[in-house]
Amino acid sequence: MANQKNTPMIEAEGLSKFYGVFAAAREVTFTVNEGDVVAFLGPNGAGKSTTMKMLTGYLAPSEGKSRIAGYDMQTQRLEGSPRLGYLPENGPLYHDMTPSALLSFFADARGMVAGQKQERIEAVVDLCSLASVFHKPIGKLSKGYRQRVGLAQSLLHEPDVLILDEPTAGLDPNQIRDVRSTVRKLGEQKTILLSTHILQEVEAMANRVILINEGRLVYDGPVKDLNQGKGLEEAFHEMTRSDAVA
């Protein structure tokens, strides 16, 4: 994993999102420093995806602020976006396009010149092992390969920060192993916030856990302190059972 530094790269400051009386997220506050690989845990419906969308500037918070590499993602999104790679859960891909065409399209959209475009496409294709499907329609690819295409697109512009929402959801064991390996490799150079509800992902990829339940942050610290000899499954259950949040 990357050497940890004290430069804040992902900051959530009192993030809340209300839909009428329902709070999808309530006063979520945390900081992820440069070089950290952090697992963002919680049961389904806990508010993970909502929080991640607010962090990236994709969704406006009802209250609070989010910053990426120091940029306020509500008021400085254009400045912050080049520092951020975002892979949403079931990220949108153009199924009629090939990975080659898709990556070329996004490189053009980001204003890459020819030499840089070719270099970056070759780099992400190699990192995400896409050479064998590079010219096949995305709609014909397995879910594992579609995840790799989405990850390649999020890495194309060499961001400093990666926010990955359930990158292994629905994958088979071999595909999960491949994604874990890629994330560990990326963690040597980048700051990563990785959303998951799969506990095995935590020990395999992260050095810290942020746990959210019913829209509220309930734990933020090292994996070993969450475990406390009980095992992650038991600790997770205790913190996310229906009566755990007042």
Write up what this structure looks like:
With 246 residues, the chain is α/β, with parallel strands linked by helices. It has a domain at 8-96 and 161-240: Rossmann fold. The protein is 35% helix and 26% strand. It contains 9 helices and 10 strands. It has helices spanning 48-56, 77-80, 99-109, 114-127, 143-155, 173-186, 199-205, 223-227, 232-240, and strands at 8-19, 22-33, 37-41, 63-68, 71-72, 84-87, 161-165, 191-196, 208-213, 216-221. The strands form 2 sheets. The protein has a 6-stranded mixed β-sheet with strand order 6-7-8-3-9-10, with helices on both faces. A 4-stranded antiparallel β-sheet has the order 2-1-4-5. A hairpin with a 2-residue loop joins strand 1 and strand 2 (22-33).
Low-confidence residue ranges: none
Order of strands, main sheet, comes to: 6-7-8-3-9-10
Please outline the major beta sheet: 6 strands, mixed
Overall mean confidence score, pLDDT: 89
Based on CA atoms alone, the radius of gyration comes out at 18 Å
* Total count of helical runs of at least 4 residues: 9
The CATH C-level name of the domain at 8-96 and 161-240 is Alpha Beta
Q: If classified by CATH, what would the architecture of the domain at 8-96 and 161-240 be?
A: 3-Layer(aba) Sandwich
Helix amount: 25-40%
Number of strands: 10
CATH topology of the domain at 8-96 and 161-240: Rossmann fold
Helix and strand content put the structural class at: alpha/beta
